[in-house]
Every structure is written in structure tokens, then in C-alpha cells.
Amino acid sequence: MRDHLIRQFLIELRMELEVEGIDTAERGAIVSEAHSHLVDAFDVADPMNEAEERGVIDGFGAARTMAQSLAREYTYARSRRRYVWPALFVLAACVLFSLINSQLHLPLFGREIWVGTLYVAFCALWLVALGYKARRPLVSQFLVLAGGLLIGRVCWLMFTCYPVPNHFAEFVKRNEVAKDVAFSNRMIRQDRLVASELRFGQQFFSDPSKRPVPDFLTNSDGSYLLPDGIREAGHGLPARSGPSLTARFWNDAVREWNQRPYSIESEGVPGRKTAAEVWMIRSVRDIGEQENHIQTLYRSVKSPWWNRLEWTVQLQAPGVIAVSLAAALITNAGWVLRVLFAPIVRHTRRRRLAAR
Amino acid sequence: MAYKPEIEALVLGALVDGPLHGYRITQVIKGRSSGLLKLGDNQIYPTLHRLELEGLIDAEWHQQEGKPARKVYALTPEGRTRLEQRQREWKQYATHFGIALGLGGNHA
């Protein structure tokens, strides 16, 4: 009788422990302990008294209650652990992302799916799995991560880069200032050249009488360059032919240079414009922006670091906080999934184990 | 202050005189309280496992001939400190509760 009662209780206890998701090793230890407890309890019970023997099992309490209490204790014990790996994973992902940035822009399966998209999706799925495994909400490590990234990025920017105050979230590395200025100067030279050639072309083609054309208004194939073609050539692009770039005949070139089909009122310029006028306006504006960029960059280089602090913080704070918040939300979505699915998982396990 | 009676304190108290296994712990608690504290035996084990995870007690398996192995628990120094803290809290609580009931003096 007692062996039957003990075996029946232990089978039920093992099943309830499995339903609660307690690990195999822990399950075995708990069942062994309950076994020795029941054997001790039965030793002091009268073997001839069935009611007394059943009372031993009743006195021990329900297997399900014990399994649930144990599961709660293990969850509590887990909650005392410091789960730093989701935050470390996000940090590693950020570093990896910045290191292999160029490879992440490779298209996959056409232009819709990029390697970077898959990488981000993989990171999100992995974080959900980590959150599911943690069995509790994870918040503090993401706060630490956000703070650490913020301080790290701001310090890095402060000591290695110069912000460009007129352009939000733009900065130039300290060792690349000369390169950046050289690039801006080259752009200015090209825009000036384009503007002067366009101005000349506009005047030249305003007279419809055919006459020799200067080289810079002629394409390598002998056709006449139109304003778009002048602009491409001026910015060092290889010579091309095409309806908007070149005209084969003199009359077509005159017509294209003088017609006014364009409106750039959205850019604050009223009236209809020729293509040459549009590109002249834009070139002059770009020259101003590049000159302004160089001036502000030099001002930034000369200013003390504390004057740059506001900008460096502004550069990184929103991005860092957004990344950390997104990672925290995704990770805790895993925990929410566990909470939502826990009753279903328990029910399914109980049915499967009962059938077995 | 409010004192919440805890199985944890009772279990630690049961182990103060030496290592015991689960069944014996329940017997000690029942015996010391003259049967006043009735705990389901299954209530002891979750607490024992938590105390073990927290490092307040140590556990060791003892093999027995012809019987299943027993897991025997013993207080660690941290567990002893926790027990002393619980004892102080209980004494304070019992004193104040006694005064509140109009008994006066120390009723710990």
C-alpha cells in the first residue's frame, strides 16, 4: 500500500515539476528528496492503518502546490542574477554594425532585402529569445547601456571629432579636417567653373546665328553640350550623350538653351527658368553652403572643447537612447511572450505528460 | 515595525543545533511549537531550495542502506547571521505587541 501511494505521488510530482518547466537535474533531486521524506514519514505510521498511511500523503501536501512553489522560488533566484548579456549583445551588435557597415549594404534577393535588414532582424529575434529565457523584465542593464554608450560616444566625439554647428548630427574627424576642407574647396572650384560656363553658354546660345563653339561647350563626340551636360562635365563625370545632356544640331542646342520649362519656386525662386539658370542658382547656393561649412568648421576647431559639448551631446543622445530603448522593448517582448503563453504551455505539457 | 512570520526563519531556527534533513526539520518545528505551527511538509522544500540558492544553508546528500538518499541541510555563517537578525526582529516585535496588548514588560 505505502509503496503504491509513494510511487503514485512521486509520478504526479515529477509531472507537475515538468509542467512548471523545472530542469531535469533539479527535478530528479526534488523527487529523490520527496521520496526520502515520505519513506521517513511512513516509517512512523501504522502499516495496518490505511487511513493513517493516506494521512501521510495528505500531510505532505499537494504535488502541484509544491511544484508551483518551487518554480516560483527558482524564478525568484533567477531574478536575483544580473543578466548583462542582452546589453552586451546590443553593444557587440553596434560595434559589429559599425565595423562591417559597407558589407551590410549589399542587396539580397533583389533590392528589397539588404544584408543589414537581415542582420537587424536576426538581432531582434535573438533579443526576444534572450528575454524569453530570462523569465523576468530586464530594465536596469539597458539604462546602464544607454548611459555607457552616451558617455562613451560623447567622449569619443569630444576628443576625436569637430562638430559642424550649422548641420545637426554632422561632425568631422580631427585627423580628417584637412581632407574635409580640401573636398569643400574642390566642390567650390567645380561649382564656380560650372556657373561661369553656364553663364557663358547662356549668352552664347542666346544668339541663334551659327558660329564656332568653344571646346568647353562641346562634347567629345562633337555634339553641343546642354546645361545638364555642362554640369556633369564640370563635376568630373565621364562624357555621356543623351537628350538632356547633348544636342546633335545647332538649332536644337539653341532651343534647349533658351527654353524656360523649369520652376523652382519650392526653393524660393519665382518665375520660369532655363536649365542653365536653375543650375547657376543652385551652384551659387552650393558655393555659399560649402564656404559656410569651412568657416564654421574652422570656428569649431578653434573653440575650446566645452563650447562643443552641447553639440556633441545633441549629436549622439537621441540615437543612443533610441537604440537602447528599442533593444529594451524587444528584449522584454520576449518576457511578455513567456507570460502570455505560460498557461498554454503548462496546459499542453500537462496533457502530453498525462497521456504518456 | 511589522513582523511577517516566515517559514524561512523557522527553517533556519530548526537548523541552529546542527544539520538536519527535510523530514526532520518539519518534525523539529512541530515539536518546538508544541504542534501549534502546522506546516504542510511540501512548504518546507521550496524554502530550503531558496535558502540553498541564497547560500544561507549548505546541502549534502547522505546515502542510506536500503532507503533513498537523504539531503541534509546545515546553516552557513551567512545563514546564522540571518537567523540572528530574524531573532532580533521577533524579540522586538513580541515586546511591542505585548505592550500594545497591555501586558507590559518583555514577552519575547
Q: What does the model show?
A:
The complex is a heterodimer of chains A (about 350) and B (about 110). With about 350 residues, chain A is mainly alpha-helical. Chain A has three domains: about 1-80, no CATH class; about 85-165 and about 305-345, no CATH class; about 175-300, no CATH class. Chain A has 13 helices and eight strands. Chain A has helices at about 1-20, 25-45, 50-60, 65-80, 85-100, 100-105, 115-135, 140-160, 175-205, 225-235, 250-260, 275-300, 305-355, and strands at about 105-110, 115, 160-165, 170-175, 225, 245, 260-265, 270-275. In chain A, a hairpin with a 4-residue loop joins strand 1 (about 105-110) and strand 2. In chain A, helix 1 runs antiparallel to helix 2 (about 25-45), helix 5 runs parallel beside helix 8 (about 140-160) and helix 7 packs across helix 13. The longest helix of chain A is centred in the last third of the chain and has 51 residues, at about 305-355. Chain B is built from four helices and three strands; from the N terminus they run αβααββα. Chain B is of the alpha+beta class and about 110 residues long. Chain B is about 50% helix and about 20% strand. Chain B has helices at about 5-15, 20-30, 40-55, 75-100, and strands at about 20, 55-65, 65-75. Chain B has a single domain (about 5-100), classed as Winged helix-like DNA-binding domain superfamily/Winged helix DNA-binding domain (Arc Repressor Mutant, subunit A, Orthogonal Bundle), CATH 1.10.10.10. The radius of gyration of chain B is 16 Å and the shape is elongated. The interface of A and B includes residues 32, 40, 62, 72 and 76 of A.
